[in-house]
Amino acid sequence: MEQLLHRDRLIASLGLAGIALLSWWYLIDGAGTGMNALAMTTWEFPPPPHPASGATWPASYWLIMFFMWWIMMIAMMLPSASPMLLLYLRVLRHNSPPGTGTALPGIAFLGGYLLAWLLFSLAATGLQWALERAALLHSMLMWSSNLTLSACLLILAGLYQFTALKRVCLVQCRAPASWLSRHWRAGSAGALSMGARHGLYCVGCCWSLMLLLFVGGVMNLVWIAGLAIVVLAEKLLPGGESTSRVLGAGLCALGAYLLLA
Known about the structure:
10 helices, single chain, mainly alpha, globular
């Protein structure tokens, strides 16, 4: 049994790492936008101002933007979700009859988790289109061209860090063993349901932070990596709840600074 657990964990770890690395490569390569991500990356905050004009999107561009968001969410969120996925496989192996495979339920759990972020990506794509149409977001560089919008998004994300919903969702993400014991469902259909439910908790925990990509640049690698590290710290490091509140205060202060500026 221990040998099987070790083998399953190794295969799953390599698979998750491979998916994450391919997702990051896709982003760095430009995510189908026709521009290298380095051209849309800046350390400057707020990003250099550029005038924006209302843009129309052909159907093909909608598809490109949707996949850009979804793969970006996979790259950013999969590392912090990996402990839950690996623990699920371990528990599944312990509770399965000898010779029973864990690959299909494991893939179903991962699929359910990614489905939740697919729904978020659809909403984010629509919001990006609306901001570009309103000339609030630069259509090529994909960062805010309006300081008031940037300030409001920062303050929104900061205030959300102190809400009960944020706290509940973060607790679920930080306690995988407890979460699995309460929400366990058997079979591949049950695994899909569990993955989707856990994904929704992750979306509930992090949606406001992901909207900050509109502030610093949707394809700005500095912001993408920075937010991914913040999510990891909140979910996996000791004192993650305190980190969340400190971050909230900092975001509110940064938003207020932009409003005053």
